[in-house]
Each structure stands twice: as C-alpha cells, then as structure tokens.
Q: What sequence folds into this?
C-alpha cells in the first residue's frame, strides 16, 4: 500500500499522465525575479508553488508596508471558517475609500483571484505586478488606473490544499479545492447569495462601482495551443450588447496584442462539443447570472472571465496572467470613456421582453482558424470506448463548426414592478446586495396586479449547490384585494432592472424561486375531513349551479371519476376553507405604472 502511494506521488509530481507539451519560451520570462525586494513565493519556488493562506496574507502586508501611501489592505468579509477575506486597494493618490475613489479621474479595475481555489494563477501574477508597482519598476500602472485586488476569494477551499486536487492541471505543486468549506461553488452563487464570499464581492462592487471586473480561472477540457483564453457574453446573446461590443472593439485588441508581443497565445473562451472528437466542433457558452460574468452582463458591469489553459505549465500560465492584466489595464486606461458610455447606455435601457433561457443553436457557424493540438483516437481497454491521446504537436483547424447558445427557449414579459411582501426580509436584503433599488410602500395600490399561480412543478432529484431546485409552469391571474401597505416595490426601470427581473420573475432559471427560496408554497398545513367536506360540498354545488356543471364535466374524465381523492380535493379546492396561499408565488407583478406612495423614511437605494 505504501509503495503504491509513493508511485502515485511520483506520477503527480512529474505530470507523466498528462499530454506532452509544446515547447514554450516567451519574452514574459523576463518579468521573473529570483532575488531582491518583494520576490514572491512563486518566484522563489522556481515557479512551481503558490503560497498558503498565511504566507499569502503576510505577503499582502509586506506589499502594503513597502508602499503605504499607495497600497492599503482591507478585510471585506469572513468565510464560514472565520478566515479573513482580504482585498488590496491600490491608488496613486492614496484614495482607498469608496467615496474617495469615486472622485478619482482614473477608472477602477477590480481583479478577483481564487474563486476556485485550485485555479490560483491570478494571485501569483498580481503579486508580481503589485511588487513591480511597489518597487518602482511599473510606476505607470497607478497613473492609469485604481486597483481593487482579492488574492484569494475562496479562502477555505484554498487551505484544502493537495497535490491530488486536479488530475488534469499542471501545477502548482499543491493547489486548493474547487468549492468552499460548505462544498459550495462560489461561481454558481451570484444570484442566490448563499456564501459570505460572494456576498463580500457584491458589497465591494456596490461600494466602489468598478469600471471593469476581471475574474481569473483555469479551464478544464481539451488540449489546444492557447494558453490564455478569456471571454464575455457575445453581442448577439448579451443583455448588455453595447458593453460587449465595446469590449470587442476597444479592450480585446489591446489585450491580444499585449499577450502576443510577450509570446503568449490568446484564445476564445469556448468548449468542445465532443471531447473524443474535436472535429464535431466547439460549444459557444453564454453565461447565466449564477456565474460572475453572466451576473456582470445583466448588471451592466463590464466583466471578463479569464480561463488559463490547465495543461500549460504553471509558470507559463502565471506569466500569461500578468501580461493579460497589464494589457487590460492599458486598454481600460485608453478607452474608459468609450466603455463608460456603453455602460450608461445599457443602464438606461430595460427591454419590454427578456430572454431568460437559451439553448445551443442547431445550425453551426464556423471559426476560420482554431489553434488545436494533434491527437489520435483508439478504443481504451479501461473505458471500453474510443478515447483521445494528445500528441503535443500544433495543429490548426480551419472552418471548425461552433454552436453558440443562440436558441431562444424562454422569454418573459418585463413587469413595470414587482411587489415583495414584508415577511420576505431576506429577499429584500439580497436585492440590496445585488444593487437593486427597493422602496418600502405606504398606502394601497390603485392599479391591477398579477399573481403567478403554479400549474405543475417538479423538484430536482438531487441537490445542486446545496439546493433542491424547482421548475414550474404558471397561470397569471389577477390579484384581488391586496393591501400593499408595508410591502416593497421593485421597479424594473432602473440601472439593475434586467437583473431584478432575472431574480424575481419565477420563470427565470436563476431566480430566487428556481433556487428554492419559496418552497413553502408547495406545502399545505390545513386539511379537511371527509365527514365535514361532503355535506358542505353538497350544499355548495346546490347553491352554485355553474360550479355543479363544472364538476359534472370533470366526472366525464374516467380517471378523475374513479379517483376518490382527486374528486374530494377538487371539491375542497373550491371551498373558502382552502389554503389561499397554496401554489401561489407570493411576489406580485404589475404591468402598468402603479400609483403607490413610498415611505420615504424606509426608502432603500
């Protein structure tokens, strides 16, 4: 047994189970230093290791001590294991507070590393860049932008460190775990907000209002030549198309040129339709709001998701991240005005209809050139199916099909406003964290309201991210005699209007409803006894001939007629004793401007 463990350790240490590498020697190697002030733990390890939590926080303190007039460390929250989540704020003028930074003439870039703690390239790359700022080598950076940097977001997962966490990733020698201490994936939490880590991120965004948000990851999947892939929702599938277009026109060309000059190969953020047959084409993913970049798209916050290629050596990935961030900073500095105009345009526009669910297109587009890697295919004796073996040789695909998530599967009408009962104070707090404006009401409504009544529903058979998700179909009926005094009004004509619709409309797949926030509507807590119901129902049908005819019509259905429970339930549901809240979504909707009086004392922005 001990010999087997030693053998396994040797395999992981030399990565002999991974495909062969294409040799790389980029100019960005000159960014490394082996000695001198603020040499990083990554560099001291010959680019093989990443420091643990304690050493990471110590390096943050060293950076601040080296440049206290321009660097400050802030604790933005705590994990459930009570580890501090630190953010380093960098500003040429020492504008460290949100209010001060808002008065800066420079744009602000928010860089987040370690949301998946095994994907930690951003931490070591940004430490090198901040070191170069602190030591004077890159004085130009803070003349261009202000910086917010979280070195480790998933601090608990970071400390679940092992050489065996990722079988298909080259380094670092030991890496953290994908999920946090509660086994929740932080990059699936941007709508439901179950984790203190993501709640901390949203508070930073609300407070500092950054101009660009960069989330650094390492991708899984097939082998290819690109070492730094990145993306955002494309113009045709974006809810902020003006921002996506601005990223295409102004930001991406600068980043790509910067990477190429330093010997890196930037690529598109795409996946493979069939990992055993590359030629079947690529999958063009469109992020939903549970992901950082999907949430940013709805929030009208320019958001870039970086996915370094897991099969490239750790040194190459970290240096590529440094160069990517350098290019993004240059691009933001040059084109902040164009990007801000796009943001303003998107914040001012809320559509009448909103696409809430997409599927992969049946017809493919083509990519004229894709830098892949040669492979062979053969039947594996272990899996019993055809498997690929990558050969470490460059191969360029031409006219490779790509299937984007362009198929529109569900569209909803955008209400003028949603109305949340005061008992759902937790939903109100989450809306505030999302930056959604909320008003507490004083007085009753004078316009019709709609209520979503569940027709049929199903729960997932297994939990996903700690929740049993639910899907349902609805009938929208008038809400009668509702006194809105003390309720909360969420207008959709606001900066975060599209995000509010995705959160509050029950048909949106990442809504609070779909995540199970309202599962109590699926249970009835008052019941009836047959000895009481039958005489009451007999009198009810006698007094209401129209209802009696409806019951007779139902009896023509043989299955219904032979099911005593179904007959009794139908009768009970038509009595005034039936639970009025059962299967009714408690958040109401208005499709006309509602005349309400805000309680100014409780108004929330």
A:
């Amino acid at each position: 047994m001990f010999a087997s463990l030693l053998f396994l350790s040797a395999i992981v240490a030399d990565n002999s189970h991974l495909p062969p590498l294409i040799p790389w020697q980029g100019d960005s190697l000159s960014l490394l230093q082996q000695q001198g002030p603020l040499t990083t733990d990554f560099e001291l390890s010959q680019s093989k290791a990443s420091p643990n939590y304690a050493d990471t926080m110590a390096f943050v303190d060293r950076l601040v001590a080296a440049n206290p007039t321009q660097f400050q460390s802030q604790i933005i929250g705590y994990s459930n294991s009570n580890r501090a989540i630190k953010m380093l704020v960098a500003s040429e003028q020492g504008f460290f507070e949100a209010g001060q930074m808002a008065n800066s003439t420079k744009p602000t870039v928010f860089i987040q590393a370690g949301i998946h703690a095994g994907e930690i390239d951003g931490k070591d790359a940004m430490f090198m860049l901040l070191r170069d700022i602190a030591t004077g080598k890159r004085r130009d950076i803070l003349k261009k932008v202000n910086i917010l940097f979280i070195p480790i977001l998933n601090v608990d997962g970071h400390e679940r460190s092992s050489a065996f966490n990722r079988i298909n990733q080259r380094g670092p020698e030991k890496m953290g775990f994908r999920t946090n201490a509660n086994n929740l994936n932080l990059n699936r939490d941007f709508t439901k907000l179950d984790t203190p880590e993501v709640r901390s991120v949203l508070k930073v965004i609300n407070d500092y209002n950054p101009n660009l948000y960069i989330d650094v990851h390492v991708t899984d999947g097939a082998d290819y030549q690109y070492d730094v892939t990145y993306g955002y929702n494309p113009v045709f599938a974006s809810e902020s198309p003006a921002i996506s277009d601005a990223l295409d026109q102004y930001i991406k060309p600068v980043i790509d040129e910067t990477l190429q000059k330093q010997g890196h190969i930037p690529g598109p953020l795409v996946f493979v339709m069939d990992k055993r047959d590359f030629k079947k084409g690529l999958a063009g993913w469109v992020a939903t709001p549970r992901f950082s970049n999907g949430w940013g798209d709805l929030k009208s916050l320019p958001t870039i998701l970086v996915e370094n290629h897991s099969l490239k050596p750790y040194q190459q990935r970290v240096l590529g991240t440094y160069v990517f961030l350098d290019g993004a900073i240059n691009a933001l500095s040059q084109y902040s005005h164009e990007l801000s105009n796009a943001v303003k345009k998107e914040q001012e526009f809320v559509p009448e209809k909103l696409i809430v669910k997409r599927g992969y297109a049946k017809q493919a587009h083509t990519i004229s050139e894709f830098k892949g890697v040669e492979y062979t295919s053969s039947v594996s004796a272990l899996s019993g199916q055809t498997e690929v073996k990558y050969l470490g040789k460059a191969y360029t695909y031409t006219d490779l099909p790509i299937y984007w998530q362009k198929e529109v599967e569900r569209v909803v009408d955008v209400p003028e406003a949603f109305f949340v009962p005061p008992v759902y104070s937790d939903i109100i707090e989450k809306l505030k964290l999302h930056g959604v404006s909320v008003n507490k009401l004083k007085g009753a409504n004078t316009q019709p309201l709609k209520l979503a009544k569940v027709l049929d529903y199903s729960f997932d058979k297994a939990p996903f991210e700690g929740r049993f998700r639910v899907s349902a179909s609805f009938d929208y009926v008038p809400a009668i005699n509702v006194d809105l005094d003390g309720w909360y009004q969420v207008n959709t004509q606001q900066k975060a209007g599209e995000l509010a619709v995705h959160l509050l409309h029950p048909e949106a797949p990442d809504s609070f409803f779909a995540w199970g926030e309202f599962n109590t509507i699926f249970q009835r807590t008052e019941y009836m006894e047959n000895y009481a119901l039958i005489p009451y129902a007999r009198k009810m049908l006698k007094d209401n001939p129209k209802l009696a005819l409806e019951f007779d019509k139902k009896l023509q259905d043989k299955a219904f007629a032979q099911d005593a429970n179904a007959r009794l339930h139908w009768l009970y549901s038509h009595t005034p004793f039936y639970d009025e809240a059962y299967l009714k979504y408690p958040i109401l909707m208005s499709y006309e401007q509602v005349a309400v009086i805000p309680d100014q004392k409780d108004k929330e922005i």
Residues 314-347 form the longest helix (34 residues). Residues 1-12, 600-605 have pLDDT under 50 and may be disordered.
